[in-house]
Batch of 4 targets.
Target 1
Amino acid sequence: MDLGISGKRALVCASSRGLGRGCAEALAEAGCALVLNARGAEALENTAAEIRAAHGVEVTAVAADITSEDGRAEVLAAAQDVDILVTNAGGPPPGQWQDWSRADFIAALDANMLTPIALMSALMPAMMARGWGRVVNITSQSVKAPIAQLGLSNAARTGLTGYVAGTARQVAPFGVAVNNLLPGAHDTDRIAMLDANIARAQNTTPEEVRAGKHASIPARRYGTAAEFGAMCAFLCSQHAGYIIGQNILLDGGGINATL
Ligand code: NAP
């Protein structure tokens, strides 16, 4: 399918690896010029070079912490007037509900709620003025079904979801479609870290944790960054202008719910 976005410019945050990279690859395949971002410069430059070589699109790499004001300013300076915004950042650390302090919550809200909101605030007015834009926020399945050890993520991402529900309907009349993509378990470094954490707590191995989780998912496996990226690119496509303020779950059937 031709996604109809060849020549558009996209900012994909937190994209040197994992789900962000999957989105960047799929948008590059659709012909978009990219601004990529991550904190680690070397991995980011390698990813940028690989995407340029594979897809022949222009790729600008900005090594910066997207959750800090200075980092965002650097990224935004390179990404003025993008047509497509994919927000993403690392997820909050796991832990116990009794242990989280106010400072822990502020950090999680800053990274996973206020950062995507700041990016939308900065970039959507120009999209609206041009009459076309797409925003995809990478959130989490925890918005639909809480994950016990990820209470900081449950809280921050649900806040973002409420903001998007209201805002998406205000920018839609100007041709800007905003939606959230909710990853269930996907095979990335983040899930490997979480599995290792559970293995330590349960005195078992990460491989056993992984096998148990695969067995609990109807698709019997973790998702891939490429599958995730393909859905992201579709939501950024010309075909998705009537999908507004939705929360699209990609979880292999893991959440047992009718809606
Ligand atoms: P990942 O494999 O750990 O990759 C994270 C990417 O984000 C890397 O490129 C990393 O590069 C970059 N990054 C992290 N913090 C950043 C920051 N402050 N500023 C700029 N770049 C940053 O993670 P992932 O699995 O792709 O997860 C992406 C998001 O989806 C996370 O918020 C995660 O919680 C959420 N999620 C993932 C899953 C899953 O199963 N994978 C499920 C639910 C939700 P640097 O470290 O060099 O900055």
Note: Residues 14-20, 37-40, 43, 65-67, 88-91, 138, 140-141, 183, 185-186, 188-191 surround NAP (CB under 6 Å).
Target 2
Amino acid sequence: MYIVQIASECAPVIKAGGLGDVVYGLSRELGIRGHGVEIILPKYDCMRYDHIWGLHDAYQNLVVPWYGAAITCSVHCGWVHGLQCFFIDPHSNDLFFNRGYYYGGQDDQMRFAFFSKAALEFLLQTGKRPDIIHCHDWQTGLIPVMLYEMYRYYGMENQRVCYTIHNFKHQGIAGVDVLWATGLNREPYYFAQDRLGDNFNPFALNFMKGGIVYSNFINTVSPHHAWEARYSDVGCGLSHTLDVHNHKFGGILNGIDCEVWNPEVDRYIPYHFNKDDLTGKAKNKKALRERLMLGHGDKPLICYIGRLDDQKGVHLVHHAIYYALSRNAQFVLLGSPTEPAINSWFWHEKMHLNNNPDCHLELGFNEELSHLIYAGADAIVVPSNYEPCGLTQMIGLKYGTVPIVRGVGGLLNTVFDRDYDTEKLPEERNGYVFYQTDASALESAMDRAIGLWYEYPQEFQELVVQGMEYDYSWNHPGQKYLGIYDYIRHK
Ligand code: ADP
């Protein structure tokens, strides 16, 4: 099969969160299985060029119609760890992707509407006719819309679209301008409730809704989150739309890339280890403590790795730090704040805890350090308010770091409580789960984990090994996506 992924991120070259990991990991898995995979991305000025091999001009003078005129783009081609990627570089005074950030502009909707249009023009003008176009999140929600309403009349009538929603919170809400810019025009037609008209704001278009309505198949990134999106408020206003299109909607758990996330070969950690020999893990804990100037006492080390924002349950993350310290455990946080208020809050905490030998807060994005933390910590907390899939708990499991998670979304599909799970046998359980959003719920789960570490170290080790035995690689999800591709191709 010939598959083209179109996305705003692809790790490690462009990564703001899990989306980047998924685009990379899934594409690699599809490639390993013998399918042709290409990835189309924006050419941001701030991406990690050191991860691209052989970057060269692949196509010049890609003329993209825009607002009745046109913007000319160059398309560069390069290999990101063996994956062929095309980077779209518009020559326009708008500097869509030359701003030193991936997201966060006032005109993000326009930036990614343009990217979507340019990606389709690139396929059209170069004669590329993939069997499957796989789009991700709101940034590419207009692709199936434009494909169905415009590009199929230009010769792209056989392309099928799979649309993956990684986060319902950001939907791409825009005004009428976007219709004139992209050439879709026909205002009343697209504002209709059964097309792109936002379910709550009659003056807004919703890119993600467009993606849902026009794609051949839509999925979110775990079975439980697919259920939540339809039946709870985490669908962020799209529940009804998902209900209407239920026949083509499902949930597929993400995988983790086992070349990148594998304690047996990880090039960012000083000592390798596996479930049969955990001595390397203990050495990594020592190395982590040395790197962060933490004390070396006989204490469990708990970590948090992730964005610091409302979705991730920042208040509980904050509480976890102090609760761990009060229970004589160490805490390491690696977090990227997403809002100024959270940034100042955690900088304040960082200053306050600066001299504490049992705690280190590292604010910002640091891929290399994250590997050492996964490898050196005993447990990882993931107290999310909602979590479409969550990768950190799966990476934690792979590195023998026991997850302590809130039972929502993909966390519920991947972590099984050591004491209370009703689905798995005791020897198949792998972590701790709590359900409520208050501090005492988190405390009770942390308490059980820390208690086991101190009182029953042998049993804690068994829990670590049971977690490492789980296979959350791309093997199963890869197969599931191929099943969907096949289904929509032949439908
Ligand atoms: P998200 O909601 O951000 O997509 P996921 O759990 O799905 O959350 O994926 C998070 C990914 O980003 C993981 O690979 C995690 O290791 C990485 N990550 C998140 N924050 C940071 C950070 N501050 N530094 C390094 N890596 C990070």
Note: Residues 2-255+475-489 form a domain with the Rossmann fold fold (CATH 3.40.50.2000).
Target 3
Amino acid sequence: MSTPESGPGELRLGASQVPTTTEIPRGTAPTPGVALAAARVPGGPSVPDAEPIALTALIQRYANELFTAPPASVAPGSATTSTAAPAVPVGAPVASAPLGGEASPPTSAFGFSDAIALPTAPSAPPAAAPPAAAPPTSAPTTPAAPSADASPFTSPLRFDALGDLGALPLISFPLLDDTSAPALAPPAATPAPDHALAYELVPTDRPSLGPVTGTGFDPHVLRREFPILNERVNGKRLVWLDNAATTQKPQAVIDRLKYFYEHENSNIHRAAHTLAARATDAYESARDSVRRFINAPSVKDIVFVRGTTEGINLIAQAWGRANVKAGDEIVITHLEHHANIVPWQQLCLATGAVLKVAPVDDDGQIILAAYEQLLGPKTVLVSLTQVSNALGTITPAREMIEAAHRHGAVVVLDGAQAVSHMPVDVQALDCDFFVFSGHKVFAPTGIGAVYGKRALLEAMPPWQGGGNMISDVTFERTTFHGPPMRFEAGTGNIADAVGLGAALDWLMRIGVANVGHYEHELLGYGTARLATVPGLRMIGTARDKAGVLSFTLAGQKTEQVGGMLDQEGIAVRSGHHCAQPILRRFGVEATVRASLAPYNTCDDLDALVAALHRIQVGR
Ligand code: C6P
């Protein structure tokens, strides 16, 4: 295909120019283990907010007593491997060191408790938790025998006591730097299903496609973990090809949510009772799953948000407002989802900065030379997608980040469409921020994460104010926690964060690289089969693509095609995919988009192609 060297588009959005719409010219060329129930002072005073200094002194005194007290008892059989830290049963409430001769209430293994304000303390720890039902596991054949107290889903991580809290080290405790954390032990009660084993040696049903077996992966086995795939829609087998919009959830995630609500549900970081400790452990354990999934250096670098949209808005508001000024330049690409356009436009409008757009060629690939020409001394930020949701293009993110860094710009990587298709290593990519949504990677909706380099996060002001993110509030002033809590104001989506952790653990067990290899085969198969449909135009023909087959059908409206496919039980998305600029780059307002996940098979694509043939011949 031809590759026009069209010039870069440029949006000038000075504060005085406030367009209601933005036009981009067509063809322009995207102490370990110590449970800090210390804050709870048996019989202690309730402390009014207006006395922060007295409160600080009080807490510091009790905290000091706590940390000179003997460590909590070591639970036999604990999964904890550290010799430095007293072991705590996974997910179980932690018996804290006695204060004043009385046992403190159970506290999260992560050391969160802000029970200071409670006027009285129980004279003994609460009764043991009711016996937990045998927890569900993602592998029905796996024995599951948790102890009554131990959530099978939490990991024995620890929070540092009184680390670098700064102003008021009383209530919550900084996340351990993972390099010093005890090695993670898999939850003893739920050995991971051995996907590699399960998927070995299963012959593909399309041998001509190449060896699916070579990936050690069988989609037919994987499908059994997704109950929704047994649904019938309009009397037909459900063919779910709308994965770029949202992925389906494996049994492991469904079970994890159920377990949370049946055994752990509580608010987190802020109570002295057993369920708060369980919920806090589950939530913080999920944060560590995110860290491992994207290879971030520390859990301190992971902020939970609602999803990619909220994550990018967080960066635009918190980092952007503090660092972008009139005349600065922000570079995005023509491939971006609206979530990676609009927040930057808003920032430009507020600050007088200028938005620039890196062009793509006729295959939907970034024109690197044109991108590099956009970079200069005024470039303060580059924000790009790793995979286009509308075309499937995989951008040369590493190269683009490197180029941006040569000009001193900060780089945001939108990983929404990447995380389910390819391994992500934020340290190898060297992006400054990375954002993704859980629901696109087999986790629930309403939860996602922002990774940020530590120095950037620490220098950023909070973007929302409220509970959970403060270390002290008076009517005169407020001091904030460090990251990540500084950016998690209010009660978050606790259960779904736990579900996200379960989804990522599940995917890591399968191996994202295995998924990527398999989907690559599937994409090639689908592309070839779709080419047989009369009047079909593929939109997005990049050399490197992931997961997306976007097309138009001559003589058919995309929404009608979507409706007709639905009649056949086939779910695709038709429309502009919240990426209008890139579709207009190809002269269309909408496409039909089939998007892939590892549970899709050649049969799914055959069903799609057969239905499209029928549509085109009017049957
Ligand atoms: N794309 C799609 O059907 P949220 O909605 O916050 O989870 O994700 C926003 C987003 C950001 N970037 C990219 C590349 C995306 O694909 C999306 C979401 C969905 O393509 C819903 S519009």
Note: The first strand starts at residue 9 and ends at 12.
Target 4
Amino acid sequence: MAIEERLLITGGHPLEGDVYVSGGKNTAAAIIPATILSQTPCVIENLPDIEDLRVSAQMLRHLGAKVNWIPEQGVMEVDASSIDRTDVPLDLCRRMRASSYYIGALLARFGSAQVPMPGGCDIGQRPIDQHIKGMRALGAQVETRRGIVYATAEPLVGGDVFLDIATVGGTINVMLAASRAQGNTTIYNAAKEPHIVDLANFLNSMGCRVKGAGTDVIRVRGVQDLQSRRPYAVIPDQIETGTLMIAAAATHGDVTIHGCIPTHMEALTAKLLEMGARVEERDDSIRVRSLGGHRAVSFKTQVYPGFPTDLQQPMGALLCTATGTSTVVENIFESRFRYLAEIERMGARVRVIEQTAIIEGVPQLHAAAVEASDLRAGAALVVAALMAQGTTEISNVHFIDRGYEHLEAKLASLGAEITRACD
Ligand code: EPU
């Protein structure tokens, strides 16, 4: 039986000092499968040491790639030339949403992929119909039988893809498939998130021709002979940066987050300023200071550059102690408010009506035993625990480990009282 780990956090300590943000989880999730496209070995740098990457490395090894991952250096070398199969096992796919990217990457390189439907956080329905529609527009035959996606193409041919939703995963998967297709692909209503731009930069560094990433129209000219020629470093994690910013404000602290990209954080920065926190942006760092007395604010989650759904949960935790009533509308995923029921156990006053949460701020949260229901729900509970009186016990820590590198060590270095316990 797996050992169940818990985080024990005693709240009330202001976070103070300097902290470095890790490489982006969701960027790495796209770039590691993209190494399959290269004829030459790839070296990827600035990777976070998180569970999702361990799973991705296992997928590559299962396919026959040579993978050398040095987590303490954040470097993974992938030689995809030895890949000798195009099926990915169910037990690995269940553990990570980004397993779907292996469809686009394997299809582009080998004309064939057999990949079970992806798992990942249970935050609502997460279909991949737009991914499949995009691949079909490039001439692929795609069928789903008994939960496994079977895709073939001989060959993939560039085409026009109109996404019904600006889906992050769908945009990435179509970019991967189009990268080695014959001719030009245009993706309309593409997602604009920072990791889409990072993937485009990586593909271009291998000789692909991707233009328009970061806008809603992306053009990809496929190139058959993609070759990685130099190490590629992934961008810093936007959501980890935001989580640390929120934690700094929540504890009335003074934290400088180094190695981040402040322009990626504008939606959150604007809300923290509106609440009364002080936020100073420099070239690659952000300082967040707060003396408390936060005002309630309202926001709706949106695609980038709107307020990210992945920060809705930690931000919702912070709002539980703001003065006044905040209204939060979750527009991207339908089951992303479960963490609020846990924070209610800590004294929060919350009403959830369909996709809207109404949060009446209370002066103080109190420690309780709470359970993370997904990755960012776990981050929200950490923020709540840092604010609460007493020692909060958070179970289902494995969710947090999926996406945050050394979170407790980073928080402890800033002065948090946080330890990990095993049963
Ligand atoms: N959707 C469809 N059909 C599709 C694809 C998506 O209907 O074919 C819907 C989804 O159900 C959802 C919306 O479109 O309602 C947006 O989904 P999207 O595809 O953009 O999300 P994703 O690719 O599944 C990625 C991140 C998520 C992040 C979302 C939104 C990765 C591995 N995951 O998911 O990250 O919340 O984009 O920004 O990149 C997390 O890090 O905690 C996380 C869940």
Note: The chain has 14 helices and 23 strands.
